[in-house]
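task queued by scheduler; priority normal; single chain, no ligands, no partner chains; default sampling; output format set to structure tokens
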Amino acid sequence: MVKVELDKVFRKHYKSRISRNKNLVRKYEQRFEIFLRDRRNLLLKDHKLTGKLRDKRAFSITGDIRVVYMEESKDNFVFLDIGTHPQIYGM
């Protein structure tokens, strides 16, 4: 069984960046369900990160909204952040 923990930063950014937009909430919920079933599903565009986030991974909610996460073990993940590419990566 897959376990996902939500980091404090993720919760804060989800509330301020995502929760006010019902369409984004729906998209997040859909992608979260896919992640739980098969995190390698091509719809997620899951990928390793580089630079200061090199030990982390990210997947797409929409074309620009990403979830950054860490894999603690095979079935245990921590969602660290959510937002647009510039919000997360500071570009």
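post-processing summary
- Strands lie at 3-6, 47-48, 57-60, 65-73, 76-84.
- Residues 22-37 form the longest helix (16 residues).
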